[in-house]
Every structure is written in structure tokens, then in C-alpha cells.
Amino acid sequence: MAFVRNLGIAFACGFAGTLVFYAALIVADRVGLPDILGLKGRPVPPLTPTIYMLGTWGGIWALLLALPWLSRLWLIRGIVIGLIATAGAIWLFGKLPPQFHMIWVYAAILNVIWGLAAALFYRVVSIEY
User: What is the number of domains present in the chain?
Assistant: First the structure.
């Protein structure tokens, strides 16, 4: 039963991690990270319509946090799940170009930040079983 509860907690932590992702997106834009990586500057999308879609996908990817692997190493779990989400955006959903591009690096940086935030939230509030 604790595993089922942890699925709900993982989804909520992934959604909350999306807020950190969005804040990292704003900071990266202000610092000029896209320009440093040679990417064309894109405006940061407004929060209201974007957060629901991003939060839902963040929650779905964060369901991986409920799996009982590397439970003590939340830092590594966050990094791995962030990289898995980036790989999904590249190869499963076609949101990024299939051939290597610097946007992969940019997406990986932001997704790892999301993964670390979600894993930290999960580590703090999850129910150990």
C-alpha cells in the first residue's frame, strides 16, 4: 500500500519540480545560457498555460522515483531520471532534433535540475517501505 501512496507523492513531487524547472529556465535565459550554447534565443513561455502541460509530464516522469532502486542515493536518481526525460524528449516524442545538437545539452541541464528538485522533494516527503 505504501508503494501506491508513493506513486501519488512522486507525481506531486514531479509537478513541484516543474516549478523549479521553470525558474531554472528563466535564470538560464537571463544569464544567456542559450547564447553561450549557440542556440537562437527563444522567449520563455508564459507560466500559466505552460505549467499544466509541463507539470503533468513532470509528474509522469517522476513516477520513476517510486521504484525501489537507489533509494538512498536521491542525487543520482534525480540525475538519471532527468536524463531519461531528456532521452524521451529526443527519441520517443520527437520534441528535439534526432541528430546531436546543442539543444540536447540545454535540455539535459534543465531536465537534470528538474530531476534533482523532484528527487529532493520525494526524498523529504516519501513514505519509506
Answer: 1
Helices (H), the chain: 2-31, 33-36, 47-62, 74-87, 102-125
Domain that holds residue 83: 2-103+116-125
pLDDT in tens, 32-76: 888 888 887 677 777 777 788 888 989 999 999 988 876 778 889
CA distances from 95 to 68, 103, 114, 122 (A): 29, 11, 17, 27
Say if 111 falls within a structural domain: no
Residue type, 32: G
Tell me, yes or no, whether 110 lies in a domain.
Answer: no
Residue 83 lies in a domain: yes
